[in-house]
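>> Question from a student workshop board

For tomorrow's exercise we were told to take the sequence and the ligand below, predict the bound structure, and bring the output to class. My setup keeps failing. Could a helper post the expected result so I can at least see what it should look like? The ligand is alpha-D-galactopyranose.
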Amino acid sequence: MLENLLKEFKNHFGENDKEIREYFAPSRINIIGEHIDYNGGKVFPCAIEIGTYALARKNDDNLLRLKSLNIEKSGELSLENIENNPENDWMNFPLGVAKFVQEEGYNIGGLDILIYGNIPNGSGLSSSASLEILIGEVFNDFYNDGKISRKELALIGKSTENKFIGVNSGIMDQFIIALGKKEHAMLLDTNNLEYEYYPFDLKDNKLVILNTNKRRELKDSKYNERRAESDKALEILREYKPSIKALCDIDESELDLLDKIEDPIIRKRATHAVKENHRVAKAAKALKDGDIELLGELLVKSNDSLRDLYEVTGPHLDSITKHANEFKDCLGARMTGAGFAGCGIAIIKEDSFDEFVEYVGKRYTEDTGLVAEFIQSGIDDGVRRL
Ligand code: GLA
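>> Workshop helper replied:
Here is what the output should look like for this input. Compare the format with yours to find the bug.
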């Protein structure tokens, strides 16, 4: 595949004697801990083997020349006075990254970059964070001798998303894409960015990604609204317990505190955040102990909460996770990522994949008229030069 990309690169940008380098950034799933990375919670994501490739070469024109094999739009963007322009479409992501690399005191400079991603678009597997971290690493390698740490790359990606694109996302996606580890999940404390890797050993079970093939536009979705509702809940709870800095600072023994929130919607949102955070700790322990049954049960509880309390699932995810959870050899299934559509994950018995696909696929199509995709992917390392 890289050979083809190289051909495409030379066709589009022409040949010269400068070095062309190759990079890959994974996408991600989150095992559990959803919609709490902006509430100071713990999350449990993994980087996966599908992701975004870049071929890149320096240019002397201080231009970001971009071409994607996935999206028609390509162009030449100046690296002077960088600003978001809706006409740039997807190219605002690389441009935003350049801006924040520079704002963090690092160097930027001209690059010709060809992009190819095999992440289903709009699937909630974080194609945008994958692109951000990928471009950050290209600037890091070409213009900064690798001095930008993986953690800084993640924060640059998040700034791009929050301040340049306008999605008020948390740090989870960028962090795992920058720092993922093969065959490991990462328990990330979003309060202080401390993290720990857990061997991702499901014993005689396997992970399946359930793509509803219903696109989700994060920016147009209710993501920012949920975030504002969480902030509102925190504001109310701080009147009663000023020491809390985030919703997830609330301990399991203090759940009564949530009764102080009068608005039932805001109370539901806060209840999800607090309980989901506790589920993450239990899930990480279950994985460590090899108790995959318990891990599966926690996935189901998480999904119920995201559907009923946080209300970020929608009919497509509800259908696919419902049928997955009905299947005899499924230990647990849930939505993953921002939700509203996109992907779910399921843990199933290793040798029941074909039966699972048939059972869930058929019923999902009956419910929605769409054809689901069932992806088996290994757990991968974070961003890297190839
Ligand atoms: C999106 C955001 C993340 C996180 C998830 C929900 O993927 O980018 O920061 O909030 O949604 O858990």
